[in-house]
Design goal:
Blueprint lengths: L1 H14 L10 H4 L4 H7 L5 H4 L12 E4 L2 E5 L5 E4 L5 H6 L7 H4 L1 E2 L7 E2 L5 E9 L1 H6 L7 H19 L5 E8 L4 E10 L1 E7 L2 H4 L3 H4 L11 E7 L2 E2 L18 E6 L10 H30 L3 H30 L2 H17 L5 H28 L6 H16 L12 H13 L6 H17 L10 H6 L6 H8 L3 H6 L3 H42 L12 E6 L3 E4 L2 E3 L2 E3 H7 L10 H6 L3 H4 L2 E6 L11 E3 L5 E7 L18 E5 H11 L3 H6 L4
Antiparallel strand pairs: 1-2, 2-3, 3-10, 4-9, 5-9, 6-8, 7-8, 9-10, 10-11, 12-13, 12-18, 14-15, 16-17, 17-20, 18-19, 19-20
Bound molecules: aspartic acid.
Aspartic acid binds next to strand 19.
Length: 681
């Protein structure tokens, strides 16, 4: 084991220069050949990026915003991220009379900034390798479920210890399925207030038709401020806005929290993701999007209420199509099968890798077993994504069950450290509930659940469930949050009754999932050892929502034969695309400000070959001096399936150019309060 790790380190040092592929951890950045980094265009010493002794550096200015990334851009806690990442906060303050989604928002002083109920960020502080501690906590000879429980118990105790420091928020992340575990220490800021949002027509220009597409003309950015003890949070590190922008060929560096990729999976596992994640999402979410659109037609109230869910479903649905398309076009599963076979052939003659070969076979058996219950499991999984009322009922029942246990016995996500979030989400939900839409989604889920023989769904109608529930009453719902299982049962509330009836099935599903995850935690590291040794070069770990850095250059690409995409777009392109109809309708005041030919040359979006995925939304893109040149928000179509494998020909991300942001704030919105803080006035 030890020799193997030294081997990995050596490869990182020696061979990182080979490609832009790789979402590198802060620790790995310090191992990269500094000469190579300099040649690429980095003008700062690597220690300036991350100083492990101090637990900070320029990378600490990239903070985690659940599902996204955000960047500090001033010493007073001003945060820049995507419009789509602050959409929930914008929606929280939108009403039919004051629709911030449509009109945008601009604070002209600190007093006008708008606080949110659930928006939080985590600032990174320290990364500690805890692999040995986790491995030592697994008793010899245990079964897979007990293995997972032992890993989780150790993770929880490490987290609890780490969170003894006030304000800390910690987690243990697994790399390569458990080849390495890292304790991630960060501190959390819970008072985040909206400072600026452009009108949706700018922040989401092009909407779904342009999502995951190039050429792109979207002003996908918004701003907030972090407060600590009621005062603007003071940060040592932030990204100043670059005075000069980027051009084709320029070096860029991107930091953020990429969520999840599938590159370390075997071909069979990838095929499962295709079928059980993306084909299912296409089918189920496709239907739900239609239902949300139909049920809110003509209702301003309904449109605002479902906007967050609709946006998320649309994004996941479009992404799923992109993944399926890319898997097919690139024959990625077939290529992975050939790659797996090559490792098997190589390892077959090497006694040291006998365990890896056995592990691969067992991973395949697990993949096959997963297929048998995949469609049903998917429906259990989307309880958390679909009907607001059913999600709340399921969460309240689960909460009541977990509360009865000692804190260290409670499942992750339901420990005391999580209660404040669960309660805040229950309060926040009121803004997102629209009965006609929720009823339609619940009907769809019930119909599908019956077809999959999920027994508690049989014979239930959404209409009856809503007639007999108090869960949609915010004050009742918050009372339920403090109740025991017996008290919830005694209410005889139809929605809670459904959740109570579902709970034993959900528990069995969680046990099956945990057992499989326990087996994977045993098998994947074995198999990965062979894959990495066979590769003979660094293999970047799959994304796991931890801080990563990727290096690249501003660059176009060819999407198909005879077509070449240039890497930058301008305001002129946005105006050209404008039809006056959503999602291609630019607000009049912007059109008026963009009259001159000079203005129309303002750069709007650019592409680079940095290695990103979902979760990198809002990632700061900086030049060699650490100055902000853009804000990542997307990838083009041909690169959506890069989650399964990196293809340098099409591996591109898409960013908003800071020159557009400055133009919008300065010339159009006259946002002096913000500009002064950014040092631009
Ligand atoms: N827009 C993307 C997202 O959904 C970012 C990406 O996938 O590259 O998070």
């Amino acid at each position: 084991m030890r020799r193997f790790r030294i081997g990995v380190l050596f490869f990182v040092l020696a061979a990182l220069a080979l490609a832009e592929e790789g979402k590198w951890t802060p620790q790995q950045v310090l191992q990269i050949d500094p000469t190579w980094l300099k040649q690429q265009g980095l003008q700062l010493p690597a220690l300036k990026l991350w100083d492990p002794k101090r637990g900070t550096g320029l990378l600490a200015a990239a903070v985690a915003l659940p599902g996204c990334t955000a960047a500090f851009v001033s010493a007073n806690g001003l945060i820049l991220t995507n419009h789509h990442c602050l959409f929930g906060l914008i929606q929280e303050h939108s009403t039919t009379d004051n629709d911030l989604i449509t009109n945008g928002f601009i604070a002209r002083s600190r007093e006008q900034e708008l606080a949110g109920k659930t928006t939080r960020i985590t600032v990174p502080r320290k990364f500690t390798d805890v692999t040995k501690a986790i491995e030592a906590a697994i008793p010899a000879g245990v079964n897979d479920l007990a293995r997972l429980k032992a890993i989780e118990a150790k993770q929880k105790s490490l987290v609890a210890e780490c969170e003894r420091t006030p304000g800390n928020r910690c987690s243990v992340a697994a790399f390569d399925g458990g080849l390495q575990y890292t304790l991630v220490e960060g501190f959390e800021l819970t008072d985040i207030r909206l400072v600026y949002a452009p009108p949706r027509a700018v922040g989401e220009f092009g909407g779904e038709p342009d999502n995951f597409r190039w050429p792109r003309h979207t002003g996908d950015f918004a701003m907030a401020r972090a407060y600590k003890d009621g005062k603007p949070y003071q940060c040592e590190f932030f990204y100043p806005i670059a005075k000069t922008g980027v051009k084709a060929g320029d070096f860029v560096m991107l930091m953020g929290y990429p969520g999840r990729t599938f590159r370390s999976m075997t071909a069979d596992e990838m095929a499962n993701e295709r079928r059980l994640r993306f084909e299912m999402a296409k089918d189920v979410f496709g239907e739900w999007i239609g239902l949300l659109e139909q049920t809110t037609k003509g209702s301003a109230e309904g449109t605002i209420a479902v906007s967050v869910m609709l946006k998320n479903l649309n994004n996941t649905h479009t992404n799923a199509q992109g993944q399926l398309d890319g898997l097919e076009r690139g024959k990625l599963v077939e290529k992975q099968r050939a790659a797996d076979d090559a490792v098997v052939a190589w390892a077959a003659g090497r006694a040291a890798f006998a365990g890896a070969l056995a592990a691969k076979q067992d991973l395949e058996k697990l993949a096959e077993a997963r297929r048998a219950t995949g469609a049903r499991d998917y429906l259990y999984g989307v309880i958390g994504t679909g009907s607001v009322a059913l999600r709340e009922a399921a969460s309240l029942v689960r909460m009541a069950g977990e509360r009865a246990k000692a804190d260290e016995e409670r499942e992750a996500g339901y420990q005391e450290r999580d209660w404040i979030r669960i309660r805040a989400a229950l309060a926040r939900d009121t803004q997102s509930f629209y009965r006609p839409s929720d009823e339609a989604i619940l009907s769809s889920w019930l119909r599908r659940a019956q077809a999959e023989k999920i027994t508690p769904a049989v014979g239930r109608s959404a209409l009856d469930l809503f007639r007999g529930t108090k869960i949609t009453d915010p004050s009742e719902r918050l009372k339920m949050f403090n109740e025991s299982l017996d008290q919830l049962r005694a209410r005889n509330d139809s929605m809670l009754n459904l959740a109570l009836a579902l709970e034993p099935e959900l528990r069995a599903w969680r046990v099956a999932t945990d057992t499989r995850d326990g087996a994977i935690a045993r098998l994947r590291p074995e198999w990965r050892k062979a894959v990495i040794a066979h590769a003979g070069k660094p293999v970047a770990p799959d994304a796991n929502s931890t801080l990563r850095v990727t290096f690249g250059h501003v660059k176009g690409y060819s999407p198909r034969d005879g077509v070449m995409y240039t890497p930058q777009t301008t305001l002129a392109g946005m105006i050209e695309k404008s039809t006056g109809e959503e999602p291609f309708a630019i607000p009049r005041f912007i059109l008026d400000a963009a009259r001159t030919a000079k203005t129309r040359e303002i750069p709007l979006n650019f592409m680079a070959d940095t290695d990103t995925t979902g979760g990198n939304s809002g990632s700061p893109v900086v030049n060699g001096r650490g100055e902000l040149v853009g804000l990542n928000f997307d990838r083009p179509w041909e690169n959506v399936a890069n989650d399964f494998g990196y293809n340098p020909d099409v591996a591109r991300n898409i960013s908003v150019d800071v020159r557009f942001l400055v133009w919008l704030l300065e010339d159009v919105q006259k946002a002096d309060f913000i500009l002064k803080e950014l040092g631009l006035k």
